[in-house]
Queue: 3 jobs
Job 1
Amino acid sequence: MPEPILIFLRGFLIGLSIAAPVGPIGVLCIRRTLAEGKLTGFLSGMGAATADMVYGAIAAFGLTMVTDLLVGNAVWLKIIGGGFLLYLGVKTFLEKPADHAAHVNKGGYLGAYFSTFFLTITNPMTILSFAAIFAGTMYIGSTAMPTVLVAGVFAGSACWWLALSFGVGSMRERLTPSRMAWINRISGAVIITFGLTALFS
């Protein structure tokens, strides 16, 4: 198999493995899919996939100055990210389920995308995860190889969010308003917990 394809597949598996564990972004994506539809859930995931790609590029191309800046400001990034998680958690917990399908405008789609991008990019531990993984995965040589690796990371992360949003979206029709209310409360409580953990860790 040609080397660029192998490098891409490695990146794909890295992106998939980093995206798959269900954290605050996963909970948010699931809840938005159930409440607002597959596209909103998918775009929420794509915000996280884009941030993963950015951090992957920083690690792959060895941009140590940017890495040091992010890690050096880890406390402030945790405060900002944790505070935003608390806001989203409380908003989700208190939100009443709609009795009909909502129309999501372009601004709503953009908000879904950028909110998860912001949450993921304010987690400096992500860059350390990528740096540790890439240390054993990186191809040393042509600058084209890191580009292929980062493209694989984005593709792997994007495929996970596509599968999650459309898999969860298939169950949307079975939800009653009372069940959706409980999903909002449970999702909100979980997101609040993640926010508090980020603030006090």
Job 2
Amino acid sequence: MAINIVTPKAPMAPALPPGIAPAFALVQEKFPKVGEKIAKMWGSVVLQEYLSKTIFDERGGRQGFPMPVVSALMLLHEYHSTLIPEVSSGDTWDEAK
């Protein structure tokens, strides 16, 4: 009797321009779980929220990321924000300005 073990495949890295790809590679190398989440959420508004919360942790008592990783996350956040539509705040007066 053979046991068939299926392991989930890691999400593929998003297609990134040459100036951005090394940032993703660094995050994926140093913090694989964060890299996996980025790959899974790429192209969604949810990723912007995740990156914001990851970069600017408000929970306190955390060590934080090394500066090169913070820079890479910020670069990914900035680039990704150009790919998704702007989210409405729901405040009509803000949109009218």
Job 3
Amino acid sequence: MITIIAGSNREGNLTSRIGDIYFDKLKSKYKGEVKLLNIELMPSGVLNSGMYEVTNPWIEQVKNEFIVPAEKFVFIIPEYNGTFPGALKLFIDSLSSKDADKSFFEKKAALVGLSAGKFGNWLGLEHFGVVLNYLKVNVFYQKVSISDVWSYLNVKKEYNDPKTENYIDKQINGFINF
């Protein structure tokens, strides 16, 4: 199973739309199960100072449905202040503070960055890759950075950039075989 994680909890974010695009593409190419987890849907109050002692029911459900059974992950990561969202880090912490071996160890991940600027969150992808390596996740070498995401998606939030589309397709094809 491949789980796609749209890593922004900001309401109405474009990360979710990129997650939808990856979901559609993977469903058409991958023979196994594909699931999409959007952390925008995370209930408020899940990430708090007590999350390391008491497991939240939503986190347990996500862990059992999306994380533990997954063999691979695709992380869609927007740029927040030059790196990745703090909510994504806390989300990963909540999943790995107990049973990190079942959640992440020796699994595989592909990284996709996006930003309104011209670098496509490449620095955030590098930072997040370090977090994943610490959790013993094997990170696929071919990362996709979607720069100027507003021009990649049209008004209807449909993609309209053949060059980026080609990068996405190459990443997906390689990641399926990774």
